[in-house]
């Protein structure tokens, strides 16, 4: 292994599902495409160490913009390990971002490319990029009869904090986020700390909202750690970000290993904690708002709803809101208050369909780190929660103006 500091030594979390047949490693390393770093090679050849493996690569255009030599580094890595790896074509570049998952033609176009390369179940598809690219490429590959082994290399804090670790891939359809989904585990996940260092601080923090959400759902101690280190996290400090990402990914890995698909992605999955309102905000703004930024607003709304339903104490709600604000996140977006011509909240559009025709129910926190309980989404309570967030945002704006 290449020389590195103690924090940078490779850490591997093994995901072994108790209710399914999948097993895969999640590796944290640095400089994954350095020829001296054998972590990636080890993961790719671990099942057939004496064979030469055919590899294809897809790279996110955003990751390439941040590291212009990235494709060259991938090709160099393959050349230096050509006894084990056969890069069958130069890496292709695909645009990133959530809008990419709206294009219904992209999965079939990628499948046509995989077919042209004659990828099969012994081949490896290396996907390097943000959560949206990992979703798209994983969906396209997993719906092939002879699906290649997908190795994810997430390049953003949002992806590394959790989505890249879960054994699913999804795309948007019919105006609904992640409407089409496959539950096929990756062959491996490799989180390179160097990639997130190329992100701007604000982008890092927006992505780390995913880690805050994981702490709220499953780990009270991690929430306390984030509170204690909020300044370090908000400034994008390297070691603090690395530790938070690793702990959040481990929580998601544990979820994947010990929870069935039905439990995680069942009837309440589409209205997941913090995510349902975030999805509506993204859609109403034509995805101009960042995903993590919208998720912060969604968490603020759901925790306010939890306090109104008394599933969550006011002290916990305030602690959560204060933490998000200390991270520099806004708890409001104007889309929350948008109404149609009859005065009905646009936030409610499409929720009945996403709730399988039943009255929408949302999972609300039972307490920090204590999971959720399902509650019916009442419009009068939702309006009250929105009003409270609007007043809080106006009060903060006034305070800033006077400062």
UniProtKB/TrEMBL annotation:
Tell me if Lyase is a UniProt keyword of this record: yes
InterPro entries attached to this UniProt entry: Dehydroquinate_synthase, DHQS/DOIS_N, DHQS_C
Residues in 3-dehydroquinate synthase C-terminal domain copies:
207-334
Gene Ontology molecular function: 3-dehydroquinate synthase activity
Task: Supply the Gene3D superfamilies for this chain.
Answer: 3.40.50.1970, Dehydroquinate synthase-like - alpha domain
Limits of the 3-dehydroquinate synthase N-terminal domain: 96-203
Which example biological process does GO assign this protein? amino acid biosynthetic process
Name used for this protein in its record: 3-dehydroquinate synthase
- What species is this protein from? Polyangium spumosum
Q: Which gene encodes it?
A: aroB
């Amino acid at each position: 292994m290449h020389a590195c500091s103690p924090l940078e030594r490779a850490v591997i979390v093994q995901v072994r599902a108790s209710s399914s047949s999948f097993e895969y490693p999640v590796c944290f390393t640095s400089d994954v495409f350095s020829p001296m770093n054998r972590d990636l090679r080890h993961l790719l050849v671990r099942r057939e160490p004496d064979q030469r493996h055919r590899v294809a690569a897809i790279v996110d255009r955003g990751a390439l913009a941040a590291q212009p030599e990235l494709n060259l580094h991938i090709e160099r890595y393959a050349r230096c390990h050509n006894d084990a790896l056969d890069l069958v074509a130069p890496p292709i570049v695909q645009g990133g971002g959530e809008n990419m998952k709206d294009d219904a033609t992209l999965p079939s176009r990628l499948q046509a490319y995989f077919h042209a390369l004659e990828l099969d179940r012994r081949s490896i598809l290396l996907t390097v990029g943000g959560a949206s690219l990992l979703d798209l490429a994983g969906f396209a590959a997993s719906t092939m009869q002879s699906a290649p082994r997908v190795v994810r290399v997430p390049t953003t804090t949002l992806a590394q904090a959790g989505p890249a670790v879960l054994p699913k891939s999804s795309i948007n359809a019919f105006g609904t986020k992640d409407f089409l989904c496959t539950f096929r585990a990756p062959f491996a996940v490799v989180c390179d700390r160097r990639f997130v260092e190329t992100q701007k601080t604000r982008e890092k923090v927006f992505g780390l909202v995913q880690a805050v959400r994981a702490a709220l759902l499953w780990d009270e101690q991690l929430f306390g750690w984030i509170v204690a280190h909020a300044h370090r996290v908000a400034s994008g400090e390297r070691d603090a970000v690395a530790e938070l990402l690793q702990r959040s990914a481990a929580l998601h890995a544990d979820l994947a290993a010990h929870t069935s698909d039905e439990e995680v992605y069942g009837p309440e999955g589409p209205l997941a904690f913090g995510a349902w309102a975030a999805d509506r905000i993204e859609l109403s703004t034509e995805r101009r708002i960042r995903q993590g930024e919208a998720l912060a607003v969604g968490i603020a709304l759901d925790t306010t709803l939890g306090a109104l339903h008394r599933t969550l104490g006011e002290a916990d709600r305030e602690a959560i809101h204060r933490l998000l604000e200390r991270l520099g996140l806004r708890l409001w977006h104007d889309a929350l208050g948008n109404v149609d011509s009859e005065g009905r909240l646009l936030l409610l559009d499409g929720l009945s369909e996403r709730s399988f025709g039943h009255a929408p129910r949302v999972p609300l926190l039972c307490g920090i780190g204590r999971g959720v309980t399902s509650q019916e989404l009442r419009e009068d309570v939702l309006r009250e929660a929105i009003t409270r967030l609007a007043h809080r945002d106006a009060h903060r704006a006034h305070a800033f103006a006077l400062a």
